[in-house]
């Protein structure tokens, strides 16, 4: 089994700030670090470190080869990451305050130029029962999800950054939907339907420090978060998503997959950074909470 992830790849620029800047405010940063990020890359790295065979479908600019190589070093299959000469690699400006909260500005770059032939070539390798994952930092999500569904793949969608139109288009093809509490409220407002009435077999709503809620078409179950003191929440949701899908791909029941993912996300928020500090399965298994 394998996870095929149509996802963004970003260069993340982290600025440590005393507080998140307000409108019109000029603020001196206390430090700068660059790392691999993007919701797609984060989820691919998390899934690979959680033990799943993970194939990333994406694109970088000429200056972004380091990002592709770092993903490969983390165990991700990057054969379907195209290198584009005429657009830059996507990047993110991330302000992180002393409490670990963040504010992010994105430049899509190559993430919005993934060639159609790249997507088609990757899915041509997939087998019935494999997982197809997509987020909202690329384009052609619904079109590719439809292709994956027709091939018999389990179609998973992380509805972030939230876009009501994009989500409405992809909903008919989904087996799995994950979103946070704010995004869930936005989706209910846009569709007039609760998460359990969307027709998606598995819906997970992440609740931050309160944990996560798993909703099927017949029941709802809450899972508590691990008790930790966060230093940086960046990438925690992506880590959770990658771990849940990797655990499911390896045959674990959804309840166990969610509990494992909760441990991974809890460990993630105790670290500064994004893809480069996502914990591997050994770290998660050995963690004491």
TrEMBL record:
K(+) binds at residues 232, 234, 268, 271, 273. Its cofactor is Mg(2+). GO terms for cellular component: cytoplasm. GO terms for molecular function: ATP binding; metal ion binding; ribokinase activity. Substrate binds at residues 10-12, 38-42, 137, 238. The active site is at 238 (proton acceptor). One of its GO terms (biological process) is D-ribose catabolic process. Its EC number is 2.7.1.15. It catalyses: D-ribose + ATP = D-ribose 5-phosphate + ADP + H(+). The keyword Iron does not apply. Residues 6-279 form the Carbohydrate kinase PfkB domain. Its main location: cytoplasm. Activated by a monovalent cation that binds near, but not in, the active site. The most likely occupant of the site in vivo is potassium. Ion binding induces a conformational change that may alter substrate affinity. It is found in: Cytoplasm. Keywords: ATP-binding, Carbohydrate metabolism, Cytoplasm, Kinase, Magnesium, Metal-binding, Nucleotide-binding, Potassium, Transferase. The keyword Cytoplasm applies. It holds the Pfam family PfkB. ATP binds at residues 180, 206-211, 237-238. It comes from the Bacteria. Belongs to the carbohydrate kinase PfkB family. Ribokinase subfamily. Catalyzes the phosphorylation of ribose at O-5 in a reaction requiring ATP and magnesium. The resulting D-ribose-5-phosphate can then be used either for sythesis of nucleotides, histidine, and tryptophan, or as a component of the pentose phosphate pathway. Homodimer. This is Ribokinase. It comes from Shimia isoporae. The lineage of its organism: Bacteria, Pseudomonadati, Pseudomonadota, Alphaproteobacteria, Rhodobacterales. The gene is rbsK.
